[in-house]
Amino acid sequence: MIRPIPQPGILDIAPYLPGKSGKPGSQTVKLSANESPLGASPKALAAMLEAAAHLEIYPEGSSRVLREALGEVHGVDPAAIVCGNGSDDLLHLLAQIYLGEGDEAVMNRYGFSVYPIITKAAGARIVMVDEPDYRADVDALLAAVTERTKVIWLANPNNPTGTYLPEAELRRLHAGLRPDILLVIDSAYAEYVTADDYSVGLDLVRAQQNVVMVRTFSKMGLAAARIGWMVGPDHVVDAVHRIRGPFNVNLPAQMAGAAAARDVAFTEKLRAHNAQWRDWLSAELSGNRLRVLPSQANFILVLFESPEIAARAFTTLLDAGYVVRETGPSYGIDNGLRISIGSEQAMRAVARVLKSMDEAQ
């Protein structure tokens, strides 16, 4: 049978696997997708509802209102900001622009599973660098760079480990790169970081011509709205604008995002809740048989003694009404479970279930 054939390599790409949800109609608590446990900003909800009264109108193509709000809150020139249909949209565009046949992109072994997809889709090769003790290694990343390297993908903090590179190490990584290599700093979890030595990367973007920072509203309560944004130098912003969709962020999302960006009190409330229960759950679960990686995100990664115990823990939590993320299929961490930080009730229940399992062994 004659039919259209995908480009070489497309069917070799493993599709993205999202976190599981409970069965429809069940009371399962979803702790698998790093969503906000406090919902969305009330101001964002009000702005979205107001915008929904005008669904017959095309959105403003450049997301001007959203860019202006982001510029105001983060101290960035709105002209240096590009918005997208989630940060994935922008990552795809960057791969399409800067990667091609014969090129290479470098990432951490346990980095965000979208990076290999967008790299291979652009016809390039992904180079995965081992992470000693689940932390990014600047020296190893730099050693992986070749004459074919065009992009470095770096999630900071990283998903699914929650670990991060301090500002000094981030600068050392950039200093070791050729000027024709694009360093993409994916700061998706920046709102939840409490470490004093962390940087979202804006200073590097302002000072250099080969650095971009990518962010998202998904972890702040607007996952359903799909809003991402990036900051980059003029030549990168120009290239992205040339190929992005002309109306790639819908009007309700633009208005909700602008309101959410300005609602710094709600963002701080989310950060405080997350810090309290992230640290509490980490301390509760850390022990001889369970290891919790130190996290700066809105989730923790729990490591078990074996993949079999991790699988049993997943099932036991699911039976108790809590679905978490298995890290074997997407990330190759067969003995791990990623647990989003949820309500106090959910965190206490998860701790109780896992500690009971640990004590019973």
From TrEMBL:
A family per Pfam: Aminotran_1_2
Give the matching SUPFAM superfamilies: PLP-dependent transferases (SSF53383)
The pathway it acts in is: Amino-acid biosynthesis; L-histidine biosynthesis; L-histidine from 5-phospho-alpha-D-ribose 1-diphosphate: step 7/9
The chain residues annotated with the modification N6-(pyridoxal phosphate)lysine are K219
Catalytic function, reaction form: L-histidinol phosphate + 2-oxoglutarate = 3-(imidazol-4-yl)-2-oxopropyl phosphate + L-glutamate
Q: Which residues form the Aminotransferase class I/classII large domain?
A: 28-353
An example of a GO molecular function for this protein is: histidinol-phosphate transaminase activity
GO BP: L-histidine biosynthetic process
Q: Which UniProt keywords apply?
A: Amino-acid biosynthesis, Aminotransferase, Histidine biosynthesis, Pyridoxal phosphate, Transferase
Q: Which cofactor does it need?
A: pyridoxal 5'-phosphate
> Which InterPro entries does the UniProt record give?
Aminotransferase_I/II_large, HisP_aminotrans, HistidinolP_aminotransfase, PyrdxlP-dep_Trfase, PyrdxlP-dep_Trfase_major, PyrdxlP-dep_Trfase_small
The protein's Enzyme Commission number: 2.6.1.9
Q: How does it assemble?
A: Homodimer.
Q: Which family does it belong to?
A: Belongs to the class-II pyridoxal-phosphate-dependent aminotransferase family. Histidinol-phosphate aminotransferase subfamily.
Query: Know the name of this protein?
Result: Histidinol-phosphate aminotransferase
Organism, as annotated: Devosia elaeis
